[in-house]
Amino acid sequence: MKTLDTLRTTMRRDQVWDFMRPKQGLELDMSHGTILYLEDISVTFDGFRAIDHLNLYIDAGELRCIIGPNGAGKTTMMDIITGKTRPDTGTAWFGQTIDLLRLSEPEIASLGIGRKFQKPTVFEPLSVMENLELAMAADKRVWPTLRARLTAEQRTRIDEVLETIGLQKHRAQRAGALSHGQKQWLEIGMLLMQDPYLLLVDEPVAGMTHQEMDRTAELLKSLAGKHSVVVVEHDMDFVRSIANKVTVLHQGSVLAEGTMDEVQNDPRVIEVYLGG
Amino acid sequence: MRSDIQTGRLQLDRGGQIFLILLAVTTLLVPILNLAVPTDSPLHVSTFTVTLLGKYLTYALLAVAVDLVWGYLGILSLGHGAFFALGGYAMGMYLMRQIGDRGVYGNPDLPDFMVFLNWHELPWFWHGFDQFWFSALMVVLVPGVLAFVFGWLTFRSRVTGVYLSIITQALTYALMLAFFRNEMGFGGNNGLTDFKDLLGFDLQSDATRIGLFIASALALAGGYLACRYLVNSKLGRVAVAIRDAESRTRFIGYRVEQVKLWIFAFSAVLAGIAGALYVPQVGIINPGEFSPLNSIEIVVWVAIGGRATLYGAVLGALLVNYGKTYLTGVMPDAWLFALGGLFVLVTLFLPQGIAGLLRRKGAAA
Ligand SMILES: Nc1ncnc2c1ncn2[C@@H]1O[C@H](COP(=O)(O)OP(=O)(O)OP(=O)(O)O)[C@@H](O)[C@H]1O
Ligand SMILES: [Mg+2]
Fold first, then answer.
1. What are the structural domain ranges in chain A?
2. CA distance B221 to B244
3. Which residues of B254-273 are buried (b: 16+ CB within 10 A; e: fewer)?
4. Please, are residues B304 and B346 in contact by the beta-carbon 8 Å criterion?
5. Cβ B254–A126 below 8 Å, yes or no?
6. Which domain holds residue B110?
């Protein structure tokens, strides 16, 4: 039965003659106010279900926090959105028209989904500005890169981002010499240079001081509206300080969704966090 | 600390400025001291010394080529000697054809070693090498294309680190074995030698020696400037990014394999040019130049001089080779031990090489 299905899919007319396949609109269409649709997604690793019939919708310009115990599948969910992991079943759409499951990692990145990993990776020997310069949306082939000069416009853009992430004073500093928190901001700045529509931020405040956390909260809040931002975080105080909508993941699916207060008073959530 | 992003314009660092000034002074002075100062004067520079210096300069260019890929791109090539040797062979083939009927066998159509092997016809791949322009083209193309194909195969399959270094060793070793074979048509283990003249100039004359020395100095300066331009460009910063965080660089949209491929091929071309200038000065090219040990030695020069500075590579190549010439004269057996010991000492106490030491001194002063 399964082989027959595969055969049918493979022999579909639009699969055989790719000119019959509807052209994927690579322009992001957010006309319905939703930027990301994850529907009925499941992933299994060696028999272990990391994501289990997950449904998640993110609105345009929204700042969404995702919480959940260790191993709930938060990072795996981001892997799926960015094309790093392919789900076994389900659909993932970016706006109305872009099917994420058909695209490669770099394609997805260039369409405007930026991701910050748990561990900050900046280019240590380069200066803060140079890090931003490399991340900038530009023609990234070899020859144009060799000949590239910064235009006045691009300089302005770099200055804007430096201001947003609060690193103007450190512009000429070696990125390797930044503090842990500053590296995290620089990495967010590098994402911003690519003018993303959707930002995925995995555990941004781990290892930060309280002051740094406050500044990170300000930064993420200032990004919402212009971008959609999805933040995965364990620190409840931090989540409370930025979120208006929180999604709780548990064993690979959504357990609860709502404001921080609603979620915290939800008996199932209490059970998972306290009773589990 | 750089207060701004460097653009495509050529900006020289201090070490590079000093190096280029010293190179210019030497290039002007040495010919004068050789040609215009009488032989019995203590200031006279012998032709032997001129040629020795010219040879060192070609080594320096080779070291710059290795520093470009190792220091800035993180590819530890242990096979750059192969590109050097291929450039050398291309030049050697031209010089062989220039001998004409002045060989021992007096055969106007075939080099001596082919007559000796009882060959009656020039192999197809020797055609064209009687033309200088064609040979010059091959000096650039053969190492360049080989590096390109090699890089295309290895970088695309994401071979990196030690594995890549080992494959580069295998490359030069395989070439050495191939060139040792008489049937290959490159003179077997004797290689190519007994050269007479280049572009009509007698290779034994002082003037030609001086000319080759100046050509080597110009090639070194040009190669240095080209590499400096590259590492100062945005592409240079991408190279450093690849060196330190390859997958991150790929993730922000750069075609890592392409960047590696072009820079590696460019570096091989520089090595080839160095080899082509080396051969007429030493008067011979044989398969020994492909020896894996040679390629490792180049890396040691760069490590001792200081990685990722370019001028450090020059410094390392000159110092080590001077030391080699000196020591092999005094105590021939000690050289390899001295080199190994020096390498260990530098890695332990001067991870930035001599250039790093100079920079620290400069910053402290
Ligand atoms: N590539 C993989 N192969 C096998 N198992 C995996 C893989 N990736 C994730 N998992 C498993 O899937 C589960 C979900 O992992 P995930 O990293 O998404 O959790 P998380 O919610 O991000 O947890 P944390 O809060 O600790 O970061 C874990 O049990 C993990 O061990
Ligand atoms: Mg995680």
1. 2-274
2. 28
3. bbbbbbbbbbbbbbbbbbbb
4. yes
5. no
6. 2-364
Burial zone of A32 (CB within 10 Å; 0-12 exposed, 13-18 middle, 19+ buried)? exposed
Closest CA to A213 of A245, A179, A189, A247: A179
Beta-bridge partners for A231: A65, A201
Record: contact B245-A121, CB cut-off 8 A: yes
* Dist. CA A28–CA A31, nearest whole Å: 9
Q: Say which residues have a Cβ less than 8 Å from residue A60's Cβ, sequence separation at least 6.
A: A30, A33, A34, A35, A228
ipTM of the complex: 0.87
pLDDT tens, residue order, chain A (276 aa): 667 777 776 666 655 555 555 545 567 888 788 899 999 999 999 989 999 999 999 999 999 999 998 889 999 999 999 998 999 999 999 998 899 999 988 788 888 899 887 777 899 999 999 999 999 988 889 999 999 888 999 999 999 999 999 999 999 999 999 999 999 999 999 999 988 999 999 989 888 899 999 999 999 999 998 999 999 998 888 999 998 899 999 999 999 999 988 988 899 888 887 664
Taking CB atoms and an 8 Å limit, are B251 and A105 in contact across chains? yes
- What's the sign of the alpha-carbon dihedral B322, B327, B332, B335? negative
Contact B252 A194 (CB under 8 A): yes
Question: Which residues are paired to B277 by β-bridges?
Answer: none
Name the amino acid, one letter, at A69: P
Q: For a substitution probing ligand 1, which of A42, A45, A116 has the most ligand atoms within 8 Å of its CB?
A: A45
How far, in Å, is the centroid of ligand 2 from the Cα of B242?
25
User: Cβ-count burial of B38 within 10 angstroms (0-12 exposed, 13-18 middle, 19+ buried)?
Assistant: exposed
Question: Superfamily assignment of A2-274 in CATH?
Answer: P-loop containing nucleotide triphosphate hydrolases (3.40.50.300)
One-letter amino acid at A225 equals: G
| Nearest chain B alpha carbon to A194 | B252
- Rounded CA-CA distance B319/B224 in Å is 18
Residues 90-119 of B with CB under 8 A from A: none
- Work out whether the CA dihedral B179, B182, B186, B191 comes out positive or negative: positive
What is the number of alpha carbons within 13 Å of residue B180 lying toward its C-beta?
A: 10
Q: What residues 182-211 of chain A have any CB closer than 8 A to a CB of chain B?
A: 190, 194
Cα atoms in the Cβ-side hemisphere of radius 13 Å centred on A238:
27
Domain total of chain B? 1
Pocket lining for ligand 1, CB < 6 angstroms: A 45, 50, 68, 70-76
Q: How far is B233 from chain A (nearest CA, A)?
A: 6
Of all protein residues, the one whose alpha carbon is nearest to atom 3 of ligand 1 is: A45
User: A101: which DSSP letter?
Assistant: G
Q: Which residues of chain A from 134 to 193 reach within 8 Å of chain B, CB to CB?
A: 134-135, 140-142, 145-150, 171-174, 190
- In chain B, DSSP finds a helix count (H) and a strand count (E) of 14, 4
